[in-house]
Design a protein that fits this description.
about 200 residues; mainly alpha; 2 domains; two-stranded antiparallel sheet; 8 helices; 2 strands; about 5% strand; extended
Length: about 200
């Protein structure tokens, strides 16, 4: 039909049929693409976190895609790690530091207050059921990093490790201090363009 259409030998009925077939082809292509995406997810679930060739090739690919070779510093390209680190540090200190002219003022604003009963409930210690409920509300596959224990592990072995987790929570309630590193996070720079030269990219 395509070759006949190229030669302008299609009648009106055949043209309508060709358009209908092209529409069906688009739908089938979308379905096929969806199936391939699901298969890739299934492959990740089956092989993703194991110490396999698939896992390492995927991590390597992600690393190459998100790798920043260097930065433009004062109009000059630099790949020197110490210079790049300092530029990144200064960039985020400037971006994440509040300034007096931030524009947020709370003068003469009256906030709603909670009741005394709610306040008592909020300042009471945590019991084991509350802690367990919070753990069970977390997504099972959430993991702090590639080597971390996810919530699926914690839920499965709750009977073994619950005392330690409850002890940590009670210690936090008593002292108001979370051990350094417990809630550490990392800023991951994901390039917006193919070859970024500045941190805004």
């Amino acid at each position: 039909m395509d070759s006949l259409d190229d030669e302008s030998n299609l009648d009106e009925k055949s043209k309508a049929e060709r358009i209908k077939l092209l529409s069906q082809l688009r739908v089938l292509n979308l379905k096929n693409e969806s199936i391939l995406q699901q298969k890739s997810r299934t492959k990740w679930i089956a092989h993703g976190d194991t110490n396999s060739k698939f896992f390492h090739s995927y991590i390597k690919w992600r690393s190459l895609m998100n790798n920043i070779k260097g930065l433009e510093v004062l109009g000059q390209w630099s790949e020197e790690p110490e210079i790049v680190k300092e530029v990144v540090r200064e960039f985020y200190v400037k971006r994440l530091t509040a300034t007096p002219d931030s524009g947020v003022r709370l003068d003469n604003i009256h906030f709603q207050q909670i009741t005394e009963e709610d306040n008592k409930m909020l300042i009471n210690g945590f019991d084991e059921n509350e802690i367990k409920e919070v753990v069970w509300e977390c997504g099972s596959n959430k993991s702090p990093d590639l080597d971390g224990f996810n919530f699926s592990f914690i839920k499965k072995y709750w009977d073994v490790i619950n005392k330690e987790i409850i002890e940590v929570v009670h210690d936090f309630y008593k002292n108001g201090v979370i051990p350094k590193g417990s809630n550490a996070s990392f800023i991951t720079l994901v390039p917006k363009v193919g070859n970024p030269i500045g941190l805004n990219e």
